[in-house]
Amino acid sequence: MTGGPLTVVRVGLVVFAAIVVQTSFVAGLPIAGARGDIVLLVAIAAAFESEAERGAVVGFTAGLAFDLLLNSPAGLSALTYCVIGYLVGRWNTTVLRTTWWIPIVGTMVASAAGVVLFAVLDEILGREVIDTAGLPTVVAVVAIINGAWSGPVRWAVRRAMAPPARSQDQFSLR
Q1: Residue 136 to residue 159: CA distance in whole angstroms
Q2: For the chain, where are the alpha helices, taking DSSP H only?
Q3: Which partner from 33, 55, 100, 165 sits 20 to 30 angstroms from 75, CA to CA?
Q4: Of 13-17, 71-75, 170-174, which one has max mean pLDDT?
């Protein structure tokens, strides 16, 4: 990820905050037996606010950090979030954002795709972390929760990825 070490630290703090919110708040509030995925939302927001490569990098690192807390194969979330982050970034470069609802709907569609991709990869690996009978419910809940949280999370990621502001009162010895 480009942008210097300060940008990496700020984005890392956003990822850390998302993991804390996911594990302490969102995981404790099941809706119809399913829970949101705020960490996936960070990868999607990074792709919306920058480019495909940053979305993939943020998705991979966020997913890998989240995998350390999950009872799933190591790297499954990392691969899923990386692919979704990259695809959202590629899609974002081709779409003109003329209305306020395009990033929200895009987040909801990408979140649904992320859950389905996770379930497919999980099924291929034979772990069955996600019950395929309840998959439509999980897809709907994650899409709605991530759509609702997309504005604040995109704002946090945008601020974290922004270049540092130059101070107007810099000291100079000229």
Answers
A1: 34
A2: 5-24, 38-49, 52-67, 76-94, 102-125, 135-161
A3: 33
A4: 13-17
**Rounded to an integer, what is the distance from CA 105 to the centroid of its chain?**
15
Place of tokens 């119809």: 32
Give 24: exposed, middle or buried? Use CB within 10 Å, 0-12, 13-18, 19+.
Answer: exposed
pTM recorded for the entire structure: 0.89
Question: Does domain 5-159 bear CATH number 1.20.1510?
Answer: no
DSSP, collapsed to helix, strand or coil, labels residue 134 as: helix
Q: CB of 107 within 8 A of CB of 91? A: no
Q: In this structure, are residues 60 and 81 in contact, taking their beta carbons and an 8 Å threshold?
A: yes
The two structure tokens encoding residue 113: 């795709």
pLDDT, residue 82, reads 98
Six token digits for residue 101? 């609802």
Q: What six digits make up the tokens of 134? A: 């309840």
